[in-house]
Inverse folding.
């Protein structure tokens, strides 16, 4: 398989031109899915996109969301340390629950 030889030329990072990827899209998708490594698509020598296994992408998105939640919690704790907490009645009023 031509694409397999092309993809295996790079040990750590797989890059392929958009033109080559277009001609062999099914193989590119299979390689990304089976190897669980992204295939970067290039145009004029610059990365412009990547093909990645859908389950791998789901895990990456979930991890990014978890990191964002951790950062938000740290920021909330820092704000509480700096400004203190709000009385419960004020929170209810701010939310229109009174």
């Amino acid at each position: 398989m031509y694409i397999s030889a092309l993809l295996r030329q790079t040990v750590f990072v797989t890059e392929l031109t958009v033109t080559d990827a277009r001609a062999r899209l099914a193989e590119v998708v299979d390689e990304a899915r089976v190897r669980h490594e992204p295939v970067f698509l290039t145009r004029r020598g610059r990365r412009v996109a990547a093909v990645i296994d859908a389950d791998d992408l789901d895990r990456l998105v979930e991890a990014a969301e978890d990191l964002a939640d951790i950062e938000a919690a740290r920021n909330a704790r820092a704000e509480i340390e700096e400004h203190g907490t709000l009385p419960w009645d004020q929170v209810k009023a701010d939310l229109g629950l009174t």
Summary: DSSP finds five helices and three strands in the chain. The radius of gyration is 23 Å. The chain has two domains: 2-52, 55-84. Helices lie at 2-8, 18-23, 25-35, 54-83, 88-94.
